Amino acid sequence: MFNIIQLIMAFFGSMGFAFIFNTKKDILLPTCMGGFLAWLVYLITHQWLANPYLCGFIASLFMGIYAGIMARIYKKPTTVFIAVGAIPLIPGSGLYYTIYYLLLQNTARSLYYAKYTLIFASCMSAGIIFINILFSQFTKQKD
């Protein structure tokens, strides 16, 4: 039940950012589904893998594939789908606790969360970049 609530919140959280980014109405649902599906992949991989970084990387790979496919279907830039689809994966709690412990002057704990956040965000970026490189290799631009 808790996972279902998380998935619903991932969809609506993505929708909130889709509105902030002024996403066109014709692609509102597909962009929000990207966030939903990315979080679904994260939850599924998190059940089998103990490493949250690897889970984030795999979810970002999937999100990049989804964004590439939707961009070609709707003839929009992949950035539109990635920007909204990545929202549920962003390590917000890591950012929060980094600042929280920094304000409490607990430097060791703050550095722990800062390291976690930076590594997780790097894994997300690596997944997105890897898929974008693959898509660009398989779909050559016409001159």
From TrEMBL:
Residues 6-132 form the Threonine/Serine exporter ThrE domain. Pfam families: ThrE_2. GO terms for biological process: succinate transport. It is a multi-pass membrane protein. It is found in: Cell membrane. PANTHER family: SUCCINATE TRANSPORTER SUBUNIT YJJB-RELATED (PTHR34390:SF1), UPF0442 PROTEIN YJJB-RELATED (PTHR34390). This is Threonine/serine exporter. It comes from Absicoccus porci.
